[in-house]
Design a protein that fits this description.
The chain is an all-alpha fold. 53% of the residues lie in helices and 3% in strands. The radius of gyration is 20 Å and the shape is globular.
């Protein structure tokens, strides 16, 4: 199940925008803390170190006003993930028994997977092809090496 820190980090990733050379860059923790503190729509101030603690999971119980201020910041961004206090603090709902059993439903329920998919959807077809190639390399390096039975036909 996802934690507050994982959801918050997914929002940072989802809020990424292209930089001068077209690479996606997520807002820094310092930028977000300053923007939240400077926002006149609420009276919350948040330090970079506290926001970092929320992102790394060492702080897990922020006040409702801090959560609301964080949500207000991300609602002002072009986001693909749902942005609300309930989306930030609620656990992922349990999968229904009618969902497929091959793991797709569970994988797609993960906010990091959603964030990766949504960011990939904003890439050009050429960059998506490069991303798939990178993922193929990562997949192949995670698999155990082939056994001697299937390599070269030796017994």
């Amino acid at each position: 199940m996802a934690k507050l820190a994982e959801r918050l980090n997914s929002w940072f990733a989802d809020a990424a925008t292209p930089d001068a050379v077209g690479r996606l860059r997520e807002p820094s923790t310092s930028e977000v803390a300053k923007a939240i503190s400077d926002d006149t729509r609420h009276d919350v101030t948040i330090s970079r170190s506290y926001l970092t603690a929320l992102r790394n999971g060492s702080q897990t119980n922020p006040t409702v006003s801090v959560l609301s201020a964080i949500v207000t910041y991300f609602q002002s961004r072009d986001m693909t993930l749902p942005v609300s206090v309930s989306a930030l603090i609620n656990e992922t709902p349990a999968a229904s028994p009618t969902e497929s059993k091959d793991g797709w439903a569970e994988a797609l329920a993960d906010r990091q997977v959603q964030s990766i998919a949504m960011r990939a959807g904003r890439l050009t077809p050429e960059l998506r092809e490069q991303l798939l190639s990178i993922m193929d390399v990562l997949d192949s390096s995670a698999k155990p090496p082939a056994t001697g039975d299937s390599a070269g036909g030796r017994a």
